[in-house]
Specification:
Layout lengths: L20 H22 L3 H28 L6 H13 L3 H35 L3 E5 L5 E5 L8 E4 L9 E3 L3 E4 L1 H4 L5 E3 L4 E2 L4 E2 L4 E5 L7 H11 L6 H28 L2 H10 L3 H20 L2 E3 L2 H9 L2 E5 H5 L5 E7 L5 H12 L5 H12 L8 E6 L3 E6 L2 E6 L7 H13 L2 E7 L2 E9 L6 H10 L4 E5 L4 H11 L3 E3 L4 H12 L4 E5 L5 H6 L2 E5 L6 H5 L2 E3 L5 H36 L5 H19 L14 H12 L1 H20 L6 H31 L7 H25 L11 H26 L11
Helix pairs in contact: 1-2, 1-4, 2-3, 2-4, 3-4, 3-8, 4-6, 4-9, 4-21, 7-8, 7-9, 7-20, 8-20, 8-21, 9-10, 9-20, 9-21, 10-20, 12-13, 15-20, 20-21, 22-24, 23-24, 23-26, 24-25, 25-26
Keywords: ATP-binding, Cell membrane, Membrane, Metal-binding, Nucleotide-binding, Translocase, Transmembrane, Transmembrane helix
Protein name: Heavy metal-(Cd/Co/Hg/Pb/Zn)-translocating P-type ATPase
Membrane topology: Multi-pass membrane protein
Length: 779
């Protein structure tokens, strides 16, 4: 790629663990002063010790009192009042050591909170630190110029050097090895082939490569993530504000208990001791630490949540509404089947269609071109290409006129059958023809995400009791998807206004989450308690109004976020309840005169440290599913990548079965059967055998033991049996032609093999291949 100056693009910052003295300095100074006072006391200089301890108490009292006055000015009555009263009380009764211990306790809590918050938000801060500022752009004369990032436009050709951050979204011009962990959360390196899409923010982990920019910097993925990171500050969650509302009962109880102890005994010291042990650090510190820790964990899983309040609400959610397209399905059309007219060649149909569509920006065109490249077809350069919006594309390929688009005129019998089959399966059809009419068709589908069904199961396990799919699609297609993924209810042909009404209705009964990806989902996302957008592109209205954004194209990360949110909320409530419960017990003991202020201060310090350390547990744990080891991931990716070839063999099988069913005496019937049998014997069965010997034993652990793969092994046996059954028919053909009496059994074997293998592939992709953290479809 040539040598370029390394200063063009900022190097990745070296991350070193440094002590932030802005957080730890107050605690250090307070502790040092406390120890100096202890030294004076040991030297029998009581007055000097009291002077130092009094100064420490006053140093903690002034900022605490100022914070309390600001709360009261805004008509907020919080538990900070008790901390201030405790510090004032120690000064009044001249228990300076107790006051100093309380001051150190408050400083310790704040320092621990700062430590937890820095640890919890370091993933978000890393996004800002890594943001590229410049890019290398190729000039028309072939030179390389360094330009500011805001001067990069869609269509520019860039150069990404080794170790550089990809500056904008684009397509790679040659094979590249990338580290996508910052954007997707996946730690494994990813290989991208020529022409594949690459998101900004990922790191080039291999040799330099060319990049064709498809978006400018402001519209790219990384810019959207950075904007969300800037907003994802750990503001007080509702459970913390709820703690302040509890102060309306807790503070009077504390003051009443302290007053009763003083009134009944006449000892003001007891009242001060009650106030000392009532200092409410568990509510003030432990709860937000747990919530912020949860924010950090979901960020590492590829989910950015704007604030702690949204995380807390996600942990209380009971109802989930999901859009279909782009959420439960891939949102991008995929060419699922190519059909040729009787006597035609399917590969030629696809080659001609993809050649004409090469220059079209339409998403359907991309699906055709992608399938042709996957099958290794050599595309020709089209001529005289014209595109009529809504009708299709016309051009010449190798001198032949080719039309790709809608069906015109009265269809032939074979075309009617294809159209009916597509309608029943919920697929759309692209017709390929010439000036004489159609000679082929390509069926397109929006496939259900492989991880959708598993994710729905995990969401139920996490506590969501009602799952509803809302979509603007047709009822037949919507019901098919709903049955596949296992939701409770489906609402089809739903307009954006109706989506909002439905979300509002559900939100009136329970905490509701809405998941969507399109601009039409934005109003519903804004209406829900927690709106979740699929994919942080930085330019969609759905991401702008959402409370959380999935930065990776995997629905199962939503289940991760729900599980982590519930766990963090549970830890927060547990920490607050245990801390305040212990404090109440200590308050009663202090009221009885059994706990002097100094001892109470040390006891409260221990309680605070205990609950804060417990809150830090939210930084790990809580996920129900088990990961798979790296060697198993490699096997999953390998066999998932082979499914494209298996599906191609399946398409040939279905075409051949249809040929046998409609024209069993055709001369091309037996050769087609032999070719299908050869492909299954040479390609499909070795694939299934490899899975049986290597993949299934490796998967015996994560899904639940050997029994989890036993049904799949039984399907392997059935697939092999049906292939042998077809081979038995072929071995007994006396004259190379099918006998009428053997056609029914042969058709039963062919269609049975088609059904069993399709189901087998679907189960593998949903239950097994979705275990791999690789983002996007298998390559």
């Amino acid at each position: 790629m040539g040598a370029e100056p390394r200063e063009c693009v900022p190097e990745r910052p070296t991350r070193r663990r440094r002590i932030d003295w802005r957080v730890w300095a107050p605690l250090t100074l307070l502790t040092l002063a406390l120890l100096i006072g202890v030294g004076f006391r040991l030297a029998d200089r009581r007055d000097a010790a009291d002077l130092v301890w009094g100064a420490v108490t006053l140093a903690a009292l002034l900022p605490a009192a100022w914070a309390m006055l600001r709360q009261l000015w805004h008509r907020q009555f919080g538990v900070d009042v008790i901390a201030v009263l405790a510090l004032v009380g120690t000064l009044l009764v001249r228990e300076y050591l107790a006051g100093a211990v309380i001051a150190v306790m408050v400083g310790t809590g704040r320092a621990l909170e700062g430590y937890a918050q820095r640890r919890a938000t370091r993933d978000l801060r890393a996004l800002l630190e890594r943001a590229p500022r410049q890019a290398r752009r190729r000039t028309p004369d072939g030179a390389i110029e360094v330009v500011p990032l805001d001067r990069v436009a869609a269509g520019d050709r860039l150069l990404v050097g080794p170790g550089d951050v990809v500056p904008v979204d684009g397509t790679v011009e040659e094979a590249a090895t990338l580290d996508e962990s910052v954007v997707t959360g996946e730690s494994q390196l990813v290989d991208r082939a020529e022409g594949e899409q690459v998101a900004s923010g990922v790191v080039n982990a291999g040799a330099g490569f060319g990049l064709h920019a498809t978006r400018n910097a402001a519209e790219s993925t990384y810019a959207g993530i950075v904007r969300l990171a800037e907003e994802a500050t750990a503001r007080k969650a509702p459970v913390v504000r709820l703690a302040d509302r509890y102060a309306a009962a807790f503070v009077p109880f504390t003051l009443l208990l302290a007053g009763v102890a003083w009134l009944l005994t006449g000892e003001f010291l007891r009242a001060v001791a009650v106030l000392v042990v009532a200092t409410p650090c568990p509510l003030l510190l432990a709860t937000p630490i747990a919530i912020v820790s949860g924010l950090s964990r979901v960020a590492r899983r590829g989910v950015l949540i704007r604030e702690g309040g949204s995380l807390e609400l996600l942990g209380r959610a009971r109802t989930l509404l999901m859009d279909k397209t782009g959420t439960l399905t891939a949102g991008r059309p995929r060419a699922s089947e190519v059909v040729a007219a009787p006597g035609g060649d399917r590969d030629e149909v696809l080659r001609l269609a993809a050649s004409v569509e090469q220059l079209s920006p339409h998403v359907l065109a991309a699906a055709l071109v992608t399938l042709a490249r996957e099958r290794g077809l050599r595309l020709a350069e089209p001529a005289d290409v014209t595109e009529e919006p809504g009708r299709g594309v016309t051009g010449r390929v190798d001198g032949r006129l080719v039309r790709v688009g809608q069906l015109t005129g009265e269809p032939q019998e074979w075309a009617r059958r294809i159209r009916e089959r597509a309608e029943l399966a919920g697929r759309s059809t692209v017709w390929v023809g010439d000036d004489r009419g159609p000679f082929g068709a390509i069926l397109l589908e929006d496939p259900v995400r492989p991880d959708a069904r598993r994710t729905v199961r995990r969401l139920r396990e996490a506590g969501l009791t009602r799952l509803v799919m809302v979509t603007g699609d047709r009822p037949r297609t919507a019901r098919q998807v709903a049955q596949l993924v296992g939701v409770d209810d489906v609402i089809a042909q739903c307009s954006p206004r109706e989506k909002v009404d439905r979300v509002r209705s559900e939100a009136g009964r329970a905490v509701t989450v809405m998941v969507g990806d399109g601009v039409n989902d934005a109003p519903a996302l804004a209406e829900a308690h927690v709106g979740v957008a699929m994919g942080a592109t930085g330019a969609t209205a759905s991401a702008d109004v959402a409370d959380a954004v999935l930065t990776v194209d995997r629905l199962d990360r939503l289940a991760d976020a729900v599980e982590i949110a519930r766990y963090a909320r549970r830890i927060a409530i547990q920490s607050a309840a245990v801390g305040m419960g212990l404090a109440v017990v200590a308050m009663v003991v202090a009221a009885l005169g059994r706990l002097p202020p100094v001892a109470g201060a040390f006891l409260q310090e221990g309680i605070d440290v205990l609950v804060i350390l417990n809150a830090l547990r939210a930084l790990r744990g809580g996920l129900r599913h088990r990961g798979v080891p790296p060697e198993t991931r490699d096997l999953l990716d390998r066999y998932a990548g082979q499914h494209a070839g298996v599906r191609e063999a399946l398409a040939r099988l279905r075409d051949t079965a249809d040929l046998v069913a409609t024209r069993p005496d055709a001369p091309e019937c037996v050769p087609a059967l032999r070719e299908v049998h050869r492909r299954f014997t040479d390609e499909v069965l070795p694939h299934e055998s490899g899975e049986e010997r290597r993949l299934y034993p490796a998967l015996a652990g994560p899904p639940g033991g050997d029994e989890a793969t036993s049904t799949m092994s039984r399907q392997h046996v059935e697939i092999s049996r049906l292939v042998d059954r077809v081979g038995g028919h072929l071995a007994h053909l006396p004259d190379g032609r099918l006998r009428p009496d053997e056609v029914p059994d042969l058709l039963a074997a062919l269609y049975g093999l088609d059904a069993v293998l399709r189901l087998h592939l679907a189960i593998e992709e949903e239950d097994y291949f979705s275990l791999s953290p690789t983002d996007g479809p298998p390559r």
